[in-house]
Every structure is written in structure tokens, then in C-alpha cells.
Amino acid sequence: MELLNDFDDSDLVSQVLRAVRVRSTVYCRSSLGAPWGFGVRAHGNPAFHVVTEGSCWLDVDGEAGQIALGPGDLVVLPAGPRHWMRDDPGTMAVPLDDILMATPPQQHRSLRHGGPGPRTGLLCGGFALDGGTHPILRALPPVIVVRGAGGRPAPWLDALLGLLSAESAAAAPGAEEVVTRLADAMLTQVLRGALAELQSTGRDGLLAARDPQIAAAIELIHRRPQYAWTVGELATRVALSRSAFSARFSDMVGESPKRYLTQTRLAHAAVLLRSNDTPIAEIAQKIGYGSEFSFAKAFKRTFGVSPGSYRGQPAGVPGLTRDPSAAVPAP
Predict the structure, then answer these.
(1) What's the Cα-to-Cα distance from 290 to each of 158, 225, 226, 259, 266, rounded to whole Å?
(2) What is the phi/psi pair of residue 279, to 5°?
(3) Could you give the strand order of the β-sheet that contains 47-53, starting from the edge strand earlier in sequence?
């Protein structure tokens, strides 16, 4: 019997994707009549927009020019920057929070907004990731566009959107979990393409595919996050001096080996907190902390809440929920 999930452990793209898991997602289907425009505040969570009908323009904070989007196009913003969507480059954009407050989404998360002109259909939303924002997202371009063809999305996206529509309309038991898994598949597919492109062009950043010693150290950390790794031991295991290893790791990964190890441990803990009822003290021990107190202190410093509060948080995407106090200034 051939095992379909028996993949090569040396595949760096697969290693990274295993560490990125969607905890929850929000989305809204919108039918927007020209003129229309909305702004989304920076929130740090991956966001996405799918054009299901018509066309529009995307303007991302810090990026030159606006991007034209047509039917079937998918855009993903891995770092969740402030951005604007509009029917025309010159149309004024209103903060999305204001629109949602004045016109709450109808049944099945659908929103109608704008003027009497040509309509654009959008599926917009965002993801919250288990363990918070994964370091790999910093290596990705700020905007990833997956172009449709002939007015239709890519086949894999078309299939996912069909399933998403069916689940949201059915409101059957377990629908929320199914939608989250579908969102997981969407984000994973986009990340796979982006990571593969980074590898092929040599701009692989965190993957360190061009530096086998740093890649080996990352693999050691991910395989045994609970182990009491020291910088010296990691350096020895990959045949580098401590100083050379620290410098090369920080240069390629964007943070020190010690901080990367801490973040990896806490991300693993966040997954455990969400996926089962294991006591917090046991989770602390599993990921290499000597006491529940030290684990809780490190976790709160990173996530802003205690492990118990994180476990009890309702499903949602921080920064993408309605916040009347938030404003999205015009560009």
C-alpha cells in the first residue's frame, strides 16, 4: 500500500508548512456597487481578498502604485498591513469598521454596499494562526497575487470556494470547524507557491535553503523544541563556531537562535492549548520549561495573555473584528 502522506523529511517547504496552522478565520462576501472603497487597518494577521465578480484596485501601505484585480484573482497579504480596496484608483475609501457598523453583514456573512454603478463581488477575510504570526511570514513578499484565468479562479481555489459557500449556507453542525480547515487549505496552498518561488529564486530568507548548516539547526529545533538547546550545542552540531553560527543564524532568520527557539516552543505550546485539554503544567514540561510559572510568564510576554486565557479565547481573528475606535486614514 502506498502512503499518500509519506513525504520526504528533507523537503524544507513541507517542514515550514507543518508549523503554520490556521486557528480561526473570518470572512465576508460583499457585493459592492461603484463608487465604493474601504480601508482595512493594519492588524498583523494574514488577510485575503478574492474577486468573484467585476474588478477593483488594491492599494497597500508602503507599496508603490495600486494593483489591478479582476475576476478570479486572489490576493493574500501575509503580514496584514494597512490597505485599501476600491472600484477606481481615485475613489475615496471609508474605514471598513465604519461600513460594518452602519451596515452589518446579512445572513451567511454577506454585505451589500456602495453606489448604483457596476458591481464587484468580493470574498474578504483573514486568518489567525496557532502560535501567533509565524517567522516565515517575514520572508514572504508583502503582497501575493494568484491570478485567475478566463474570469475563473485557479482550479484549486475554485473548488475551495465552492466548498466554503456550501458550508456557510448550510449552517450544519461542525460547519465552523470545516470552514477553518478550508481556510487552512487556502492559506497553505498560497504559502506553498510563495515559498517554492523563494527557493527557486534564491530569496528564501528563513528557509535558509542556501545555507545547509543553518537549515540543519532549524530542523534540530523543530524536531526537539523541548530539548534544552544552547547556542553552543547547536553550533557544534552543525560544525560552526559559536560566534559564526550566531551571526549567520541572525542574518538569515532575522532573530537570534535563542529567541527563535523560544518562539518555536511557545508556538508549539499554543497548538497544544487549542487542540486538547492537557494541563498547562504538563504542556510547560513538554515544551522544555522547568515550571508552569516560567512558562506562563514567557507565554504572556509573547501573546499578551496567560495560557489559560489563550485556551479560553473564542474563535476569531484579532484585528479583523469590528472595532469602532479604529480608524483607517486615507492614503
Answers:
(1) 48, 14, 10, 17, 14
(2) -55, 145
(3) 110-114, 22-33, 119-129, 47-53, 74-77, 144-146
Rounded Cα–Cα distance for residues 189 and 301 (Å): 31
Whether the per-residue pLDDT at 285 is higher than 60: the answer is yes
Backbone angles phi, psi at 30, to 5 degrees: -125, 140
Torsion, CA 266, CA 271, CA 273, CA 274, rounded to 10: 150
Rounded distance between C-alpha atoms, residue 269 and residue 274, angstroms:
9
> Do 70 and 111 touch, CB atoms closer than 8 A?
no
Rg, Å, the chain Cα set: 21
Three-state DSSP state, 149 = strand
Closest to 119 measured CA to CA, from 69, 73, 49, 53:
53
Structure-block grid coordinates of residue 100 = 460594518
Q: What pTM does this model have?
A: 0.68
- pLDDT per residue over 52-84, tens digit each? 899 999 999 999 899 999 999 999 998 888 999
